[in-house]
Design goal:
Helices cover 2% and strands 40% of the residues. The protein is mostly beta strands.
Length: 503
Amino acid sequence: MTYPTTPNLGLPLVPDGDQSWGPAMRAAMNTLDGAVPMKGRVHVLAATGVLAYNATANLDVDFAESCDLISVTSDHPAWIRVYSSDAARTLDAARAYTDDPTPGQGLMGEVATYAPDYLTIDFSPVPFFNNQDATLAKTAYLAITNMDPAYAGVINLDFMVLPQEQLSPSGPQGGRGLPGVDGNTVLYGTTDPTIATGVDGNFYINTATHTLFGPRAAGVWPAGTSLVGPAGVNGTAGANGTNGVDGNTILYGTVDPTGAVGLDGNFYINTAMHALFGPRAAGVWPAGTSLVGPAGSGVPAGGTTGQALVKLSNTDLDVGWGAGGGGGLVLLEQHTANNSASLDFTTAFTSNYDDYVMELIGIIPATNGAVPYLRCSTNGGSAWDTSSIYTGNELHTGAAGSSSIAYGAQGQWIIFSDNAGSALSSSALPALVGSIHIYDPLSISKHKRFVFGGIGVYSGNGADYLTQSSGKYASTTAVNALRFVLSTGNIASGTIRVYGIAK
């Protein structure tokens, strides 16, 4: 065979009679069965639904009946598996990311993508995918696991594949076939069929008499056949069973039972005396047992607010009213502001307690810049001491840093202020929250001490300030009432509760 001496680069030899170089063979080589053109590399796109971290989605995507897996790109880190069938994917579903797959179970390829540098992975070596469904298809069965702990959402995928096999396209639709022979039909009704009913070959059921007719022939229905057989013969009656043992019974009445009442094994309740008798044996009822226990001692009368039931001695049930367990908080008094001029506490302070906690809950002033005060009374709230007998200190910590304030003699204890006559914001929700610890206010030998801890919102900049403040009422006279009041305006809203700390 003689070859031409001047080939064209990239063209195969074409057997066209004169052995010239040309493109015809390339066209033939690039087809399946000489009929369906094969494709070059193609991109196949897929997307999961919303996936939480470490959750897995199964996708069925068309690749080709067989193809090379070139690469895959994901927009978020993912563990990507490609299977030849749904059964293979199900068989591998329980495998952990760190485990190797079992060979020969239909896993065609798997990769894990990572951000930011490894979201595109080239398969190496290039795996060969082929669909293993009973009916050959293009479907690739994917399992996608979200490997991004900071992401929950859709993962988009771009596979690059090189198809190796494609099904031939369908041929043109064939012509319509000849009509088939009419099939036989089962008709029905509540009367017997007439000549006008149905056509030859049909059957008919009379649903009222349960009779079958047919098949009809030459326009005539044959006699019907009953679908109900003759009644069967009655079976022989079975033998009587053995009588069971009599069960025990609970009887009752308003008098005790006598020997004539009931049977052995019975019980009896005297509903008037609440006594149980039984079980009766050898015709005799045993002595009854009372169903009512001895009377209890009950809760002793008396007691005062804040007291609790305590054991008075080592004798059983010897209890009475006394001070509650040490350290427990007992709610003594509570007031809620509703554009109130002040909140006065006149009943909480008694000899049952020597330490108290005042809880400030969501205090909001009606006037911006109002300063919260605490004033003392030594006569149950009939008068409030506004003499210069109060001193105090504050420490504030906030966005602007920390600052401290010391107050000299004042006519009230200043709970929270900026030392310039301004304090709480009326727009903050809330402006003041915290607790005031009150030490031994009823003492007649000590000055009265107060300690506040909480958060206030300044009117000047609207910022939160963590505040610790202390105060002193320099008097040895017993204080038995306290007033919460603002330097200007009313208390728009908020609640204050006073608790006693049990001794």
